[in-house]
């Protein structure tokens, strides 16, 4: 297989189940603060994470009578004690106020308790006060910051982090991120080195330092050596690309929610949908999750053959052998069989969608954009994409990708593409465009900018071009972007003329069919190699700075525990994709590291863009 | 050392000693005569009011405050009304009870703190006598008024005045009275001459001390012990009755043979006292009267003041101060002449040892034979604690240390702690500090309180030294002292803000537990706002700075500090505060300079106060956002007219923002809405709110081609888009004839392959074939393949001599197409040759 471990000395990962236990114990403690039978209302997007921490029977043990989803409708509960487990959102708090006030008006006496997770905000309490029920409710905080999704993935499950922080400029979650880091530090630290890039990363780092200084210091054996913090807005290109690694594809097509995916009837080849946990416990999945999709079928069929051979052993067995076979092997085989057929089903379903002409052309366009090649054709493709109304999100994704890779669109294209998009999907997307512009995802080229870029780059390029092509060079120079410069500096786009064997990946580019090394992961690789940002000054300038590298408090004994030094925690503020995780796993195997990915949420192109939509559909 | 007993006087079984504490540092011209004097227990300060009754305004009486050793702390002329009584509270504040019933409270340094009144009724009747007393509830004041009524306040910090019931038949000043605290109640015991009464909250009870001889006469002086357990009564015939303060038990009755009542009478006891006694003072005589009917008499020359202590009586005269106490048992054991107690032997053994005499060994053996060495060491250590003279302390401790060497499993803790405590006590007993505490008092008082008292007296360096020496954790020790020091420092009016801030910063540094914001708050209290701001700058936690800054009305600064802290809750708190404090314009201006706060507030407004949001954008002239706001608002409107008017506002704002594109798009939307409305009204098409594309789709689906055409022209829909749309729509409705007509209307901008594909999608191969011929040569192969016409595809590919296209066709061929495969292969081979 492609990923035969290249280095055998990868260190062991720390055990993160402790985080779950901590969260569960704290929740139980909070529930017991409201003794007696109570009905529990849970915010919709907390349902899945909660399920991973404490199941229904655990809740029932602690006198939770009925469970409801928060639906912003009048409650039908008959219990005289209501407990609300919510995110600190003003709308939800307002709804609770309405519930309480309605009870008051009806002369009903109830006890209310609000558990905010991961923390409460003053604004929420202000709403309680404004609505006149501050005295009627008790509030608590459930510091449920970190949910381990897998052995090496921990999620804060805060998708709104992205929009709040990067679009609205609301920094309320920074402290949450800091606290999460603090918790990891106190359980698995002390960290010996912290690197980071991005404004939010820096603030999260500072918030964490503050909390370290306030709290008492405990020294114990470090289990995590280094930390890398990165803002999502440092690299928007990677999450906007189509994912072609199995796990990423499954996420793009079926949407993995909290480490769990629901396969529809077309996958399960029955008439029912099925929920499947996707993590390293699933032996089949674990072997294909990081594979380029083109390899997956071959692997699965090999696996199927092996399975058949294992089944075939039955033939010619005597009774005794049969007995041991049934008791020892059969169950495992059955299980594997079941998983195998599921993943084959999923792959077939993906194949149906993704091997069509359209998808190939889509990928070709993406790769052209990344390379900065045949941009005109790409624009026509996008135009047609919009005109034919293939997909609202996909079109938007291509527009953004075009804009970032080209450092903005030419005014003419910018207008015409936007106008066509509005005709297709409604004028309310004006607001979406305003959002995208604010984030720099979809912008118009500034006339002044092109000049300066040209001045700085012209020297180098003229040598390469013959005089006859100079005019071409100028027109393409006008479109030189930061992404291009970065791509050249960091060698993000491998030369296209070489054949890239996806079975034996040679670098992280394999996650995008060899067309592009994800910027975020490349930065991590470079900084780890250089133990800091020296030599990357030009790169950080292009990324608008805010980089830092700080040695931790205990530098002295770091050498003795070299294993921990090779465990690296990467924290994505604003979300990360499965492709990036796959790339980091690859890097880890290459260099003998183990990466732990902490993210505010798992994201992909659709989630990223949906967070920025402002239409009213 | 033998002469230690020289100052001892036997009283019954016990001994009493009088040891000098200080030569007083003060110089008082007229001695203590004609002065009101109050000295606080536990070595507290002394307050002195000269000639309190002189009333001429030209020469006001002088109020002086001294430390216990007579070092002047402050002195100022008394400007208020005549004072009846002075007294000290448990926290070293001076109470001055005035004739009119008001009580003025001063701190140790003579600055006025506050005052309270003992009731309106007193103003007229005046205070005849007052007493300040201490109880577990704090410091209390009791007065008797001109109408011979008593009023009590048990705790002046939680003032509740209680007027006690009338005493029957009391027609003049009671001859004497005391305040008792018993059974969690405060009572007054008074003598009217022949009668004794106990006054409590509700009743007045006549009482009779048990065993008081009838011929003893009436009580003219009384005194209660430090612990309120014992009572002493002095009668006009010179009899002294002592007993329990419950008046249920008699200890003794002594005939002092004095007919005048003493000027002062104070109990002299100690915990585990063998022989409690009462000290009585007349003009020239001091008498110690014990329970055993014995007395000791000392002549005195000067007027003195007696101060009752936990374990003795301090005698303050104008020249010196002495401590009169019962000699502790352990000291008796060691120092009594010819004592054979183990401690005494050990002391002797050590003395011989120092002389290098072998007698040391003999003494040691003697102790060891009785296996009393441990006891001997213990005695020496304990006795050292009780001794005031440092030489005696040393020799006792050396002896203990010597004895300890011969013991194997003896805990060193008591020895070590006694050494340390004595060092601290000797330091505070220094005349310059003037806290003459005994070890017993120190233990009762606790180290914490001692440090507090030192801090209160502003002996900061000493307090810090003690904290460091005793290794008190910084939080309770050094930091606490520094905090007080800094709070005091900021009040120094003669220093500049700059100098104080620097001094504080240098000393305090970043000691744990000292909060700069706390110090700054103190500075602000003293009216030094600038200093407070300077000090706040040293505060590391920005969050801590915010509340004070708000209090000082530095809201801008508070906001930026809150933003700096990164705590959005704090930012929000300030924003809410500002919102209520400022007028709207200023508020918005302030926010404008703080993007973080602004975006936070915007978020809030988006959810809570849409209107404010509009104002906010208006204020900023942020036309772009304002326009976006109108667009958002338009979607909340149900009625078309209001929706259009909102959109018109959006257009205006977009124009102001020079966003022509958005303005145009919005105008188009308005046009579209009107168009949709018209059609909805006419045809009931249900178009309102659809996008342009969806509208055209709907129109085509309804067969309203003309209207669709109109939109296509009006909105300059790209040809390609329109062709795609129409193509799909016609195919879906299977209007093949119409489609053919459409295809011929002009040259297709999307080519004809699209026609083929769309037809095939609708499973109409027949129609699809019609368009294959029109496809451009490059797409021919694709077109033929689309309708699964392999032959045609092969022909086209061969004709174009395109190898890869031939390959594509080949890959689609199945085994049955042998002929075709051969043909293709041949063609490919020939193409490859060229």
Summarize the structure.
Chain A is of the alpha/beta class.
Features:
heterodimer; A: 617 residues; alpha/beta; Rossmann fold; Syntaxin Binding Protein 1, Chain A, domain 2; 4 domains; seven-stranded mixed β-sheet; five-stranded parallel β-sheet; 14 strands; 51% helix; 12% strand; B: 834 residues; alpha+beta; Methylamine Dehydrogenase, Chain H; five-stranded antiparallel β-sheet; 33 helices; 29 strands
Helical content of chain B, roughly? Answer: 40-55%
| N/C terminus separation of chain A | 46 Å
Q: What spatial form of chain B do the alpha-carbon principal axes imply?
A: elongated
Q: Name the poorly predicted regions of chain A.
A: 1-5, 449-480
Low-confidence stretches of chain B: none
Largest sheet of chain B: 5 strands, antiparallel
Mean pLDDT of chain B: 83
The helix tally of chain A amounts to 27
Distance between the termini of chain B: 132 Å
Report the strand count of chain A. Answer: 14
CATH topology annotation of the largest domain in chain A: Rossmann fold
The CATH homologous superfamily of the largest domain in chain A is named: Sec1/Munc18 (SM) protein, domain 2
State the assembly state of the protein chains: heterodimer
* Overall structural domain count of chain A: 4
Of all chain pairs, the largest interface belongs to: A-B, 41 and 41 residues
Strand content of chain A: 5-15%
Question: Strand order within the widest sheet of chain B?
Answer: 1-2-29-28-27
For the CA atoms, what is the radius of gyration of chain A?
Answer: 26 Å
What is Rg of chain B? 51 Å
Largest sheet of chain A: 7 strands, mixed
Subcellular location (chain A): Late endosome membrane; Lysosome membrane
Main location (chain A): membrane
Family (chain A): Belongs to the STXBP/unc-18/SEC1 family.
Membrane topology (chain A): Peripheral membrane protein
